[in-house]
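Hey, quick one: can you model this chain's 3D structure?
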Amino acid sequence: MSDRATTSHEHADDNYHEANHEGPIRTVKQLIIAVVLAFAVPIAIIVLLVVYIDAQNKPAAGSDHLSASATAPRLAPVGMVEVKDAANPGALKSGEQVYAAQCVACHASGVAGAPKLGDAAAWGPRIKQGYELLLASALKGKGVMAAQGAGDFGDVEIGRAVVHMANAAGAKFDEPKAVAATAAASAPPTESAPPAADAAAKIAAASQAAATPVPSAAPATQGDSIPALYTQACQVCHATGVAAAPKLGDKAAWAARVGQGVDKLTQSAIAGKGVMPPRGGVATASDADIKAVVAYMVNAVK
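Sure thing. Here's the predicted structure for all 302 residues.
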């Protein structure tokens, strides 16, 4: 009996050890399932990760971020060359267009004593001086107003802006014509020449002989180029410190502002602050143009 019990116990121990050495896969079906899952699960995880990452770069629902109209401005050239035919009236800007692009910065709010558009009392004494003198002042500059000649607009276009503002205050000036101005510039005026053509001829000669460039308040930082918008509008106040505007290169005036950062200063320029109109008075200026001017002025005091 003792021998049989011992033998039975040994067989039981063998069965126990054999059972412990068996793996979880005991059938062919289980093996096939394991192999399929070994391939399918990693692939599924990779696909889900790719979808998740790709979803982070998609615009919000309803956005036209990638539409043709939204993409075109980002692919447009940085600068463009525009050639105007001075003899073609259709190629030149109207007085209202020039005013909106260049003059509104000061003449809309009366910055630094500039006569406001439509203010008959402020424009009265100036209108009495005549169109010729008003045009000369605009082309060559007067007081804190920089010279407007030889810039983005031609003499005829500046003359149209002068007529637009003067007539809004009660003047009866005739708008200068491109053909008349061209003819007057090529031949000496006579006593019978029309007033606008005679004035244009005289101012064209005067602007070539007497007009002087307006120096910047401070030199630009090495490597920086002067943004066109600064020359067009911002220097009117920031070159001389008109209406408490911080002068270009004045570290003391810019010290507190520089700490705010370019982005915050750009937002102030876009929205307008104090007597400074929104976007410096240039409604067509883009956010990027405004930021470039702010960065230029900030870099000038670093």
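One thing worth noting: Residues 180-187, 189-197, 202-223 have pLDDT under 50 and may be disordered.
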